[in-house]
């Protein structure tokens, strides 16, 4: 075998190895993103269901129901994307199912201001989280923005809707909730912990 032939073979093998490594990296990124987003949207649905259980018959009921409807659409979308990309849900799903409802109902029991403060805290965290995911997808190789175009657009749309929920919470007296700063920071910390776990478990 000539030196030139050997060089060509080695270059091809190196190229194949690089492509495989890149593919595995993209796969890991997609799995992490879809798993945590599916879990997050389930949690959001359950939070609003918990709030509706307490505030459903108040004047805030229709507003909470509307926001829940958008979260249900988000959850349904990620539920379809999981099998499409062959990603399993997080093992924490049963826990988030219960925790979301308890958080929603618990804050609603403290009053509608606290329920709205919960919405502000959750949506602030999710908005930042979605921004980080968009940056990660764009940075996934030289063609990240094009390769993940559809998912990026989906996340952008959902992020914008979450930020509307944030503004809605502020407009409905979230900052008037008792111990607003403590409540806000505590819920945000809990959300970040849930994100960390859902990405990995």
Automatic annotation (TrEMBL):
What does the entry list under GO cellular component? extrinsic component of mitochondrial inner membrane; nucleus
Q: Which reaction does it catalyse?
A: a 5-methoxy-2-methyl-3-(all-trans-polyprenyl)benzene-1,4-diol + AH2 + O2 = a 3-demethylubiquinol + A + H2O
- Which coenzyme or cofactor does it need? Fe cation
Q: Which GO terms describe its molecular function?
A: 3-demethoxyubiquinol 3-hydroxylase activity; metal ion binding; oxidoreductase activity, acting on paired donors, with incorporation or reduction of molecular oxygen, NAD(P)H as one donor, and incorporation of one atom of oxygen
Q: What class of enzyme is it?
A: oxidoreductase
Going by the UniProt record, its keywords in alphabetical order are:
Iron, Membrane, Metal-binding, Mitochondrion, Mitochondrion inner membrane, Monooxygenase, Oxidoreductase, Ubiquinone biosynthesis
Name the InterPro entries for this protein: Ferritin-like_SF, Ubq_synth_Coq7
Q: Which GO terms describe its biological process?
A: determination of adult lifespan; regulation of gene expression; regulation of reactive oxygen species metabolic process; ubiquinone biosynthetic process
* Positions of transmembrane segments: none
**Cofactor binding description:** Binds 2 iron ions per subunit.
The protein's role, per its UniProt record? Catalyzes the hydroxylation of 2-polyprenyl-3-methyl-6-methoxy-1,4-benzoquinol (DMQH2) during ubiquinone biosynthesis. Has also a structural role in the COQ enzyme complex, stabilizing other COQ polypeptides. Involved in lifespan determination in a ubiquinone-independent manner.
Q: Which protein are we looking at?
A: 5-demethoxyubiquinone hydroxylase, mitochondrial
